[in-house]
Structures are given as C-alpha cells and as structure tokens.
Amino acid sequence: MTESVLDYMTRLGRSAREASRVLARASTAQKNRALQAAARALDAARDELVAANEQDLAQGRANGLDAAMLDRLALTPKDIDSMIEGLRQVAALPDPIGAIRDMRYMPSGIQVGKMRVPLGVVGIIYESRPNVTIDAASLCLKSGNATILRGGSEAIHSNRAIARCIAQGLLEAELPAASVQVVETTDRAAVGALIAMPEYVDVIVPRGGKGLIERISRDARVPVIKHLDGICHVYIDVAADPQKAIRIADNAKTQRFAPCNTMETLLVHQAIAAEVLPPLAAIYRDKGVELRGCAATRALLGADVLEATEQDWATEYNAPILSIRLVDSLDAAIEHINRYGSQHTDAIVTENFTDARRFLTEVDSSSVMVNASTRFADGFEYGLGAEIGISTDKLHARGPVGLEGLTSEKYVVLGDGHIRT
C-alpha cells in the first residue's frame, strides 16, 4: 500500500522530534564536526550540484518561470562558495545553547537564572532558492534544533543534491540522519501537513512570495516567524553627502533586483534633488531601471519617468522598477516610510547626527540604517554566518534570524534542599 502524504509527513515529524532530543544534548564540538564535514562534502560535490541545478533551471525555463524566479533558482559556483563559507562561519560562531545568564540569589536562598535552549523542531517552507537548504540546516543544527525542509518543486533536484551533502556531515559526526530532513515529495499537501503538526513541529519559517506566506500565516497551527513584504526605502536627507547618496541609492536598487532587501522607493529631500537625482537617473537608465515618480520628480527628470500611483508606493517590485518621491522634510520622509513600508529595512543618507538619530528612533522597521545600502540587511552581512529568514514581527525574533532567533530561554533554579515556607 502506498504511503499517503499525511502519513509520510507524520513519519518525518516523529523522526524529527526524536532527533531533536539528541541534538539538544549534542556537544558544540559534535555539531561543528557535522557542519565542517558538510562543507567538505559540498566542496567535493560541486559538479553534481551544478548538474542538478541545471536540471531545475532547464525545467524552470520550460515551465515559463520569470527572470526573478530563475535568478533565485540559480546555483552558481559563487553561490556554492557562499554556502561552504556559511557553514564554516556558523561552525565558528559561539554556541548559544546552555548559556546561563542573570543567576542571582533570592531572599529564600535559591539561585534563579535563565538558560538558552533550542526551540525543538523547525519547519522551513521556501520556494526557489536552493541555498536556503544550507542556511536553514546549518543554523538549526548549530542551535540544537532538528529541521524539516520543504523546498519548492522547482528546486527539487538541487535540494536533493544539497541534502546528500548534509547527510554526509551528520553521518561523520554521528548525529541522527533525521536531524535534517528534506521533504522528498512535491505534493502541495505536504505543506498543509507540516504547518498543522504542533505535536511534532515547534515553529514554521516560510520564505518565499507573499501568497505563500499569507497562506501559511492563515492556516498554520504552529507559530510562524515571517515577513510578508520587502518594501524598502532610502531617504536622501537635505544634509546628505551627494556622492555617498548616489553610491548608496545605486547599490540599494541595482546590486540585485530580486532580494527582499532591495530598495523599492527612493525618497529625496527637495532641496538636494537637483544635485543627486539627475546623475542617479542616468545610472538607473543605463542599467535598465524603469522610473516612476511624483509630479516634482517628473518635472525634474523628464517625460520618460512614468507617473507613480498610490499603489506604487505600496509595491514590492522584485524587478528593475523604482518609485521616486520628493519630500520637503525629514518628518515627511518618516511619515511616508511608516505609512507605506513593510517594516523590513529602511536607510537614511545624511551627515546630520540629529537627523540620523531621529530616523533610527522613529522609523519602525526591523533594520534601520544610516549611510549604508539596504542590501546589507542580511544574516551573512550581520555576522550571523547565515540567516534562516527575516522577521518583521515584534515578538520573539526581529530582523535577520540567526542562531539566537532559533532559541528560547527557560528559567533554571538551583537549590540545596530549599523548601518554600
């Protein structure tokens, strides 16, 4: 009799729960051995990884995937280098598990403190990026969590090839094979099962399009760490250094178009617009970026700038399209960001310390930057080794989620025969 999707996912969940108990007590050295061995396995399997990825890319092109999706799906030699480096960085990071803080004596004589512990079993649901398989596996493993990885059907060959490398690392470190499990079926019912197993799964992290994340947030019976949109802004202040502003605004939009930390709206103080916008517009045009602007922007830059609509200010393009708005004050810039933004990443370019401090304080986003490109909002760039996702929620984890975001704390009490009277 063929195993149903529900039975299959239940088997994965049960195995993950058992593995999580082993991982919770695994030593730092053992976890690091698994990560380093997986890195060596990836390095040795470069040809197999590229071949598997080419299968996925060919199928994706045949299925009509757009350029942004194909860009996310691609696994280049540089991407493989980054995955290997990510594993090694995570291995080098301090292990948060077991750390005890704030131990203090109470009047009763007991000692009370907090110990950092794994969440348990983490389910990761993602679409086309195969590198997520490594990022998620490495962070979950180092933080003592078992993980169930459900990648998109468009990356199934890449994810299977990567999973074989992870399995080799677990084997060499004598950790359970079920510590990291890649869902083999492409049946969408697997997602529904994974998000409805609170007895086996402690948290879900969705990574992908807004539709996927909305569905999971709506239907999950397990807590979700997520962000819905990446509507990121750069604000060029009246006190900005023009050359810094041009360099940052160029990089924030054109370094890559698809990621969630790419700028979608450029805000410019009207007093500096004539100095920075024309050279920026020339750069964008050379790079094929379609510009949409407010009336003042169009008057300054010319008729080829399309009229920005109300919907444009609230749109994550994931494409070479940029909305531009001139504002008359820092207050107007902050109001625009807090109204239309997605609480992901926003940046100010300014040499005015007071303006910078106000922006940091008043912009309600998970990453807020001064004189830096929004493209830095990334776990690797933040020194987390890798990230499992970005959270714009305000409970538990916020911003790029690394090792600490995959842990919790429990109270620990030390006594010596103490009883309460």
UniProtKB/TrEMBL annotation:
Class of this enzyme? oxidoreductase
Q: Which UniProt keywords are present, listed alphabetically? A: Amino-acid biosynthesis, Cytoplasm, NADP, Oxidoreductase, Proline biosynthesis
Q: The Aldehyde dehydrogenase domain covers which part of the protein?
A: 14-282, 313-377
Tell me where on the tree of life, at the top rank, the source sits: Bacteria
Q: Which cellular component terms (GO) are annotated to the entry?
A: cytoplasm
Q: Where in the cell is it found?
A: Cytoplasm
Record PANTHER family = DELTA-1-PYRROLINE-5-CARBOXYLATE SYNTHASE, GLUTAMATE SEMIALDEHYDE DEHYDROGENASE
Q: Per the similarity annotation, which family is this?
A: Belongs to the gamma-glutamyl phosphate reductase family.
Q: What does this protein do?
A: Catalyzes the NADPH-dependent reduction of L-glutamate 5-phosphate into L-glutamate 5-semialdehyde and phosphate. The product spontaneously undergoes cyclization to form 1-pyrroline-5-carboxylate.
Q: Which NCBIfam families match?
A: PRK00197.1 (NF001221), proA (TIGR00407)
The protein, known as: Gamma-glutamyl phosphate reductase
**Organism for this UniProt entry:** Stutzerimonas balearica
Q: What is the lineage of its organism?
A: Bacteria, Pseudomonadati, Pseudomonadota, Gammaproteobacteria, Pseudomonadales
